[in-house]
Amino acid sequence: MKSTLAQVRSYERSVQLLMVNQFSINLGFYMLMPYLATHLAGPLGLAGWTVGLILGVRNFSQQGMFLVGGTLADRLGYKPMIIAGLVLRVAGFATLGLVDSVPALIAASAATGLAGALFNPATRAYLAADAGERRVEAFALFNVFYQAGILLGPLVGMVLTGVDFRVTCLVAAGIFALLGLVQIRALPDRRGNDAEDRSAGPREGVLTQWRRILRNRPFLLFSVAMIGSYVMTFQVYMALPLEVRRLGGEGTFGTAAVALLFAVSGLSTILFQTRVTAWCKVRMAPGRALTWGLLTMGTAFLPLLAATALPAAGSGPLARLLAAGPPALSALLLAVGTMVAYPFEMDTIVRLCGDRLVATHYGLYNTVCGVGIALGNLLTGAALDAARAAGMSALPWLALFALGLGCSAAVYGLHRTGARTPRPGRGPGGRPDRLTGAPGPGGSRRAEPPGQRVGATPCGDGRSCRRCRGSSCSRG
């Protein structure tokens, strides 16, 4: 932990502040949201479909507006969008605790979702810009603070909700209000690297920018390939707890076993993220690290798959071990896979967009992955139901394992076949890292014109030819 704090202090003040921000944002969010459904259905007495609507509005307003939030951050600056998002969270969380009418609750839920769409892309783009060449390490530290907030938030919320849910809402709103004041006073104004392009001529229209991003085929392929990683990691909150409850029951043991899942996932990241990232960066090119990370996530479901082959253990200690052990091991492997992949994933997005319109790219990436999570969870839930109905308990774990293999194969294919990237470099042993253009261990970055395929040299006529490797010719 001391080495982690030392690494944090080695960055600029803005980067340090962004990391503390993310911890506080997750602390405030997760102290409230896990208990919102109980509050709506219990004290307020709302119907199940109404509770689902209110919660769904929050998710839809966030996932659906990520692209808009990222675009605004690139056009207006990162700091204004971060502050605007924090202010919206203050209003939304305070309203959730003070009103009981359905329209007001829906409006408050939409505000909390829109807030995330405003500050999430801006925060990540700001971090990528100010971390510079140390982006990978910065995002590793960012994930430590991110997971710490997720781990501590529900514990604080449980204590506050024991007093009154309104207290939880007001404390969470107070955290975001304090964060907003700190940003206003301490966070420097920051724009993306494309600000220089805007000063050189007329500003490009929003729709034109979006069309250009949608023509960035490597970025879109990478976004789709990474959807599975989010579907798999989300199972720590969905399929794994359901499996624990199915095997361990709804009593004290089941509750403790579910808590163990979250503790294993969060604590392992806090303790080992920076070490895992440092180890991977020395030994792997970014594309290879992403491949191994996704493969590890897929293998996380093998313990659960193996457990289905064992005979029923009754209700003794062995039964409890089988109920808690395989899911906990799966949660640990999912955390390891995320530790390997996440920092390189965030860095790859910056490289694939050529360090231009970074927040917009992050916004679209989050939207694509958010839609994928919704569809993936729908299919996972259907697989769980089908498995129980047909007595095939291995079905969902086999499907998730296959998803991990498919995603790792897709990213490996992008890495092997190459991608048109504005920031190419060299991979391990002097070979280009074809997915990201990042320099690998022992390599050095070299600049090439935007859009040129990695490993190619400009032909005499100004085009890029992979066949002639620099001889004058007219072949593209």
Model description:
There is one protein chain. The radius of gyration is 23 Å and the shape is globular. It has helices spanning about 1-10, 15-30, 35-40, 50-75, 80-100, 100-130, 135-165, 165-185, 195-200, 205-215, 215-225, 225-235, 240-250, 250-285, 285-300, 300-305, 315-350, 360-390, 395-415; strands spanning about 455-460, 465. It is built from 19 helices and two strands. Strands 1-2 form a two-stranded antiparallel sheet. The longest helix has about 35 residues, at about 315-350. The N and C termini lie far apart (about 50 Å). The chain has about 475 residues and is mostly helical.
Structural topology:
Elements: H1 2-9, H2 13-30, H3 33-41, H4 48-76, H5 78-98, H6 102-131, H7 135-163, H8 165-186, H9 195-199, H10 206-214, H11 217-225, H12 227-234, H13 239-248, H14 252-283, H15 286-299, H16 302-307, H17 317-352, H18 358-390, H19 395-417, E1 457-458, E2 464-465
Antiparallel strand pairs: 1-2
Concise overview:
The protein has 476 residues and is mainly alpha-helical. 74% of the residues lie in helices and 1% in strands. The radius of gyration is 23 Å and the shape is globular.
Question: Key terms for this structure?
Answer:
single chain; 2 strands; 476 residues; disordered C terminus; mainly alpha; 19 helices
